Amino acid sequence: MHHLFELVLGKKDLSRAGDLFSLDDAEIEGSLSEALEQIKIISSSSDYQTNDNDQAVVEICITRITTAIRETSSIEKHGKALVALWESCLEHNLKPSGKDEDTPHAKIASDIMSCILQNYNRPPIMALAVPVAVKFLQRGNKELCRNMSSYLSLAAITKADLLADHTDAIVKSVLQGISPDWTPPSPGEAVQGQFHLDTGFGGICPFKNILVPCEEQLH
């Protein structure tokens, strides 16, 4: 790992974190996966959610890493480490506080999401990302869910079969937009009424007499 990443992440040195932006992308590209693994360790620590210094270090490093990945077109090289960090956020609280402020792990998930899912036209990356992405849809963060849905809709246009195994989870997430207290009806049961919800799949869609698909209809 590049010595500056070792210093910033190893010692959690916020005072040197900004220096990462003075380095050429090519100079640090070979260190990005290892740096992501170190960030995963830091963000999984028991005191991370209350440690402002560690959160700031992680946020700066993620910004630098995702920028370098985009500029060097190395997403396929570092995609596995990026998705692993992204998935680790699911182990923590993602629901915003009463002030609608994202939790530390929701911030990480949001920052990484755009870097990964902007590559919706790259099947190898989507094969890694889609199984993780659908897990975020029912984690109680509406903004994260809305953005995730938008990217998934693009992925579906490009390569629909990537979402085939996850249709059930996606349908349930869309229907749950009706009400926070909504629970899935039995397969084949109609939900009566007129509803409008922001699905993220093309804007506001009206639903009337929603029919929950049977298992065999989802594949």
UniProtKB/TrEMBL annotation:
One of its GO terms (cellular component) is endomembrane system. GO terms for biological process: regulation of signal transduction. It is a peripheral membrane protein. It is found in: Endomembrane system. One of its GO terms (molecular function) is phosphatidylinositol-5-phosphate binding. Keywords: Membrane. Signal peptide: none annotated. InterPro entries: Melted-like. This is Uncharacterized protein.
